Amino acid sequence: MTEHRVYNFYPGPATLPTEVMEQAQKEFVNYQGLGMGIMECSHRGKEFDQVLQTAEQNIRELMGISNDYAVLFLQGGASLQFSMVPMNLNPDQDTALYADTGSWAEKAIKEAKLLGPTKTVFSGKGNNYTSIDDCESWDMATENGEDPAYLYVCSNNTIFGTQFHRFPEFPKIPLVADMSSDIMSRVIDINRFGMVFAGAQKNLGPAGVTVVIIRKDLAMKVGDNVPTMLKYTTHIDKGSCFNTPPTFSIYMVGLVLEWIKRQGGLAQVEAANAHKAAMLYSAIDNSDLYRGTVEESCRSQMNVTFRLPNEDMEAEFIKQATENGMVGLKGHRSVGGIRASIYNAMPVDGVKALVEFMGEFERKS
Ligand SMILES: *Cc1c(COP(=O)(O)O)cnc(C)c1O
Q1: Which residues line ligand 1 (CB under 6 A)?
Q2: What does the pLDDT look like over 135-158, one tens digit per residue?
Q3: What is the spatial order of strands in the sheet that 195-199 belongs to?
Q4: pLDDT exceeds 70 at position 1
Q5: How far is residue 124's CA from residue 121's CA, in Å, rounded to a whole number?
Q6: Which of 151, 182, 213, 286 has the fewest CB atoms within 10 Å, measured from its CB?
Q7: Which long-range contacts (CB under 8 A, 24 or more apart) does 56-61 make?
Q8: 263 pLDDT exceeds 90?
Q9: For residue 2, what pLDDT is reported?
Q10: Residues 221, 225, 228, 234, Cα dihedral to 10°
Q11: 265-364: in CATH 3.40.640.10
């Protein structure tokens, strides 16, 4: 089976570790001798409960999360968090601050505007989202001088290929981060965040589950008028089992977490990711054909974006890469070009193969 796998550079859903896929395959119809698959088990039974508890514990252990925070497994994708965040964290209709670093942040701002006052403290739009300014230059003042409800950032812009390498530091303002495309790709200090969320399908597993890590006291701020399913407190009180959670996706996330532990934890994963990204960026910088699209200081370690001299060559590049077993390299439809998504599960050999292919393509062109 393994020898038929391609190098999958898709941005999400994205590649998963082959050994995780194989383990899931092995257990698919008969989970640990039960005579049924884990997805056929009750979400209230002891087998699935074990899967859920272990996954939560492993997230806590890997990210160093204290009991001040809840770890939740929710549905609705990262996109539902765009509205759940303002619904839950801004009960008094204070100003919510947003950094606009591109499409995913824009979508979050759009939802927040439906629900209360917002202010964009930084926008990369004028720069076509190719850079992120230092937070020291952000205008954090609120209109009425009230304390802002929170500050929202998207830690890694999957589409443009930019990433915060240093998070904003405003200790009095709860920091909320959409980490969908870089959660667990590096070591972070969770205590600097009020809340972090991530759709699983980039770095953690398959689509269908969203991991939410939220400081419990922030979750408690929610007003009475928020519908039950949309309150974090509902899911905290019921341990992510208020209703049927996405059991199979959670099981898969659990396997990925065990895999991350086998890699040695987040520091090791971070080093491997830095190595992979450096290989690719240096191939771009040392070539006359490829051109990186974002400012060096905010280049993403997860989504490497670049261009060729024209769209025909880009199409040819993608076609030949596919023929050589490297798929998913087409840039997002809104920006074009090439995007190589090199999440945790992309093996270094995949990046090596891509770099070699880029060299050959350049020589032949
Ligand atoms: C993919 C992505 C999303 C959207 O996730 P869904 O689970 O499809 O809603 C949101 N934010 C970022 C940064 C993403 O990369």
Answers
A1: 12, 77-79, 104, 154, 158, 178, 180-181, 199, 202
A2: 999 999 998 899 999 999 999 999
A3: 69-74, 210-215, 195-199, 175-178, 151-154, 96-100, 118-123
A4: no
A5: 10
A6: 286
A7: 56/240, 58/254, 58/257, 58/258, 58/260, 58/261, 59/211, 59/213, 59/257, 61/261
A8: yes
A9: 56
A10: 20
A11: no
Residue nearest to atom 14 of ligand 1 (CA): 180
Atom in ligand 1 nearest the alpha carbon of residue 154: 13
Atom of ligand 1 at shortest range from CA of 159: 15
Q: Give the mutation target among 79, 81, 211, 212 for probing the ligand 1 site: most ligand atoms within 8 A of CB.
A: 79
Task: Please report the pLDDT score of residue 273 as a whole number.
Answer: 98
- Encoded tokens for 191: 């205590």
Q: CATH classification of 22-262, choosing from 3.40.630.30, 3.40.640.10, 1.20.1050.10, 3.10.450.50?
A: 3.40.640.10
Residue pointed to by tokens 């370690």: 301
Q: Which residues are catalytic?
A: 104, 178, 202
pLDDT score at 3:
67
CB count in 10 Å sphere of residue 25:
10
Convert 146-172 to b/e letters by CB count within 10 Å (16 or more is b). eebbbbbbbbbbbbbbbbbeebbebee
Domain borders along the chain are 22-262, 265-364
Give me the residue label for tokens 């009180």: 237
Cα angle, residue 81 at apex, residues 80 and 83 outer, rounded to 5°: 75
Average pLDDT, the chain: 97
| CA angle centred on 81, ends 92 and 224, rounded to 5° | 35
